[in-house]
Specification:
It contains 5 helices and 9 strands. The longest helix is centred in the last third of the chain and has 22 residues. The radius of gyration is 23 Å and the shape is elongated. It is an alpha+beta fold. The strands form 2 sheets. It has a 5-stranded antiparallel beta sheet with strand order 4-3-2-1-5. The chain has a 4-stranded mixed beta sheet with strand order 6-7-9-8.
Length: about 230
């Protein structure tokens, strides 16, 4: 799922509009990704190729690239838009370069609320009623230095979600609840890499906005290493 969590659903024609706008920028000399699509037609036929052009709600032009080069295309295919019922995008991470297809980045207040929900959800999952009985719930805390930017907030949201998953994995292991109880808080801060560690009673997570967030299993190992 890496690289696709931020995508939002769009109508096929609107999605093609957005991709075609990128292709047009490429024709004008800008550095844009190549979009390789598979069109699923109502007749059960599938057609694959690189998107060359799109006439809204009328026609799609695909090219079959030879040796990865469009200039050596062996063929082009003209497709009636009305026959298309679905579109598959190869290497969907390229869609992260199309703003129209992405969820807006959460602002600082949204992220703080999201952090509270995640931490509260973990507490309630493993120790229901802990806070009502006077116990101290798990907390997520953020050092905002160099993270309060759109890339930083996106990376922070991804890191929070992955860490929450990692903590749930720890909690489900043998004696996991007792292990997890030793983590009083998780502190997120800007770092050179996105990694997790444990020190004292704190899980420490460094966040690198320029790199993908590691899988939850990798973060689990980092958090559990000091437990």
């Amino acid at each position: 799922m890496e690289g696709v969590q931020r995508l939002v659903a769009r109508r096929v024609e609107k999605m093609l509009d957005a991709l075609a706008a990128q292709v047009a920028r490429g024709r004008a000399g800008e550095d844009v990704p190549t979009f390789t699509l598979t069109l699923h037609l109502a007749q059960g036929v599938r057609l694959s190729g690189v998107l060359l052009d799109y006439l809204p709600r009328e026609a799609i032009l695909l090219a079959s690239a030879k040796e990865g080069l469009l200039s050596r295309s062996e063929s082009v295919t003209y497709v009636e838009f009305t026959s298309v019922i679905a579109v598959t995008v190869e290497s969907p991470a390229v869609l992260n370069q199309v703003p129209f297809l992405l969820r807006p980045a959460l602002n600082r207040e949204d992220l703080l609320r999201h952090a509270d929900r995640l931490a509260h959800g973990i507490t309630e999952q493993f120790w229901p009623g802990e806070q009502k009985l006077g116990g101290k719930p798990l907390s997520f805390e953020v050092d905002w230095v160099e993270l309060d930017t759109e890339p930083g907030r996106r990376a922070l949201e991804d890191a929070m979600n992955a860490v929450a998953h990692a903590l749930r994995l720890i909690g489900k292991e043998p004696n996991g609840r007792d292990t997890l109880r030793r983590i009083a808080r998780v502190a997120f801060a800007r770092g050179r890499n996105t990694v997790a560690s444990f020190e004292g009673d704190t899980g420490k997570v460094s966040v690198d906005p320029s790199a993908p967030v590691p899988p939850a299993q990798a973060l689990r190992k980092g958090l559990a290493a000091g437990l």
